[in-house]
Structures are given as C-alpha cells and as structure tokens.
Amino acid sequence: MRRRDRTYPFWKKREANVCNMFLAEEGEEIDALERKELLSHLPDLRAKKVLELASGIGRYTAEFARKASEVVTVDFIDHFVEKNRRKNGHFSNVQFLCKDVMDLDFADAEFDLIFINWLFMYLEDHEVEQLRWRLCSWLKGGGCLFFRESCSIKFKAPVVHDPATYRTVHFYTHLFSDPLHFIKEESVKVSINTFANPLQCFWLFKKPTI
Fold first, then answer.
1. Which of 60, 63, 57 is nearest to 86 (CA)?
2. Where are the domains of the chain?
3. Is 151 helix (H, G, I), strand (E, B) or coil?
4. What is the tens place of the pLDDT at every residue in 80-111?
5. 172: number of Cβ within 10 Å
6. What is the model's pTM?
7. Bond from prior residue into 158 cis (ω within 30 degrees of 0)
8. Residue among 208, 68, 190, 92 at smallest CA distance from 140
C-alpha cells in the first residue's frame, strides 16, 4: 500500500481541532508558543505572495494573511480546509485549495515564501525529491522555503497506525541544499521544552538570485 493511501484515512477520521494537528493533548497549550517561535524565523512578508502547504486547519493562515499581499493555502483533507475557510475566509487575499500537493501546478517564480508544516514525512522518498524541484521552480529569485518536520517518533503516547516516515535531519539538509541555498536548521524549542524532543526541526532555504 502506498503511503498516501495510509495517510489520507489517518487524517480524514480526525476532527478538525488543534490537539489533533499536534497528535497530542497539549496541542492547545503549545500552539501559540510554537507559532510565535516559527514565525520569528521567517523573512518580512509585507507585500509578498505566500504558498502555505499542509495548512491543516489554518493555524498559520491568518498570520500570513495579515501581512502578505496574497496567500495560497493548501491541504488535502476537506474538513480541515473548510475549518480554515470558516476561520479565515474573511481575508480577501487568501485562496483555499483542497488538493494533493503532488497534483499542484503553479507558474514559475510565483511565490516569495513557501511555508510547509509536517508534509514531507507523509511522502515517499521519490516524491520528496520530485517536489523539491517544483518548490524551487515556484519560488522567485531571492524567495525562501521554510519547512518543519518530525525527525523522531518521540511522542508521549504512541500514535496508532502512524503512516509517517521519520527521516534524519541530514537527509533534508543535504537534499534541499541543491538547488537552494541553506540558511539555517534548528530544533523547535517549544518541542524540547514540552516533549524533551530535539528532533522536531525546521529549515530555512533561499533561492539564489540569478
């Protein structure tokens, strides 16, 4: 069975709430802290166009909409997208898409920032490799790719039938450093403080300006 065939039912059966996005009872408590931390590492979004992949219920969508000129937010679970739309549909600069990321097609050099939260772990290795070239093509010169991934299975309670693949930090750093320019990789401090897990990590890359 393909990982996608396991991932869709894994998320489809979950209610659209913050605790389920974290797969942890502490979700409500750490959401605001984590958003503040991750957003602090992003470039200035004023007058920029943002692509948000694996947006879930839209925990970050409003943050982008308040600053960016345009936001395209994407998830493949329909009731997550609808929850995001109900929360953030009043923003006139947000487009909501319910699509599989591998089926997306955007113009070259369309976005200033691509933001991804927990996506690659649900893709096959060859899909991650394929997607990195698409992401690079969708970025403008000087644009940034920011993504966060789980590189560990250190949850406080076991997650039943978890379809994710927990790759090494080096895998992502090495893979995306070609063709992008590596800026930083760090552990999410909130995850360290809450779960004693230093392998919830984020990366920031920049597309070279030709």
1. 57
2. 3-206
3. coil
4. 999 999 999 999 999 999 999 999 999 999 99
5. 21
6. 0.93
7. no
8. 208
